Amino acid sequence: MPDADFDRLAAAAAAGDGAALERLLGAIRPAVLQRCRRILPFPADAEDAAQEALLAVAKGIAGFEGRSAFTTWLYPLVARSAFATYRRMRSTAVQLPVELPDPQRVSILAGARVDLVDALERLNADKPALAQAVVLRDLMGLEYAEIAAHLELPLGTVKSRINHGRTYLRDRLQEDSRGSSDSTAATASGTGSRYSPGR
Fold this sequence. Notes:
By secondary structure, the chain is an all-alpha fold. The protein has helices at about 5-15, 20-40, 45-60, 70-90, 115-125, 130-140, 145-150, 155-180, 185-190.
């Protein structure tokens, strides 16, 4: 469905049209689930997060004022839901996979990576403004201009935050890779964890 159709349905739903809300929720569900899967390592958790995000849309749609695209309003909400689910998963001691990803193929766009999500959580704890910008760009797929509109920041500031956030993630992933493998072999071969975001 084109973004313009999402915007029309969202505007109608925000005005109290129940049928438009039902159509909107059905239309956005695949994209919401896809983005939750980029963050959460287990399909069941992604499903839970997507369901919670859809419920949050239903409860909060009256707050959509149409000043930006509906997806600009939607995807930050999806990110919050997915990370909240991830934190609950960790707090309830769900066993996470212990094997490390191929260090040559660590990419935020390639799907959920436990080590990458951990690094994002650390970035969020240390520098939340950077984490927010990186998540919106590299996990939720918003354009720079959309992120600037959502955060009410100049475009240059958004790009700077994303660049600094990506650098932080690369550094953390490289540190983790060194700590979990033979540092001598890694140095000799020139390998290390690589964070490969979109542009």
